[in-house]
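job 3f2a | input accepted
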Amino acid sequence: MLEHRRRAVEKALARAAALDIKVDDDPVFADLIERWVNGRLSMPEAREAYLAHIRERDQSRADWRALSISAWRSKFNKKTS
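job 3f2a | predicted structure (81 res):
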């Protein structure tokens, strides 16, 4: 099973590269795929964990942007006061 899964990943990555499709280079994604290959996760578990990671990553980026905008506005308002 391990070799079958590893070949499936290699084939999918090669297909994506041939079609010029970017594959997420996030280490969390790579780790989840490796855990699937090694039989420690089912594909549905890997998918759910990856989607949860994406949600957390996107929320973190949104929080950072909001904080940056807030800090910029605060700084701008001090200069114009």
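job 3f2a | The mean pLDDT is 89.
job 3f2a | closed
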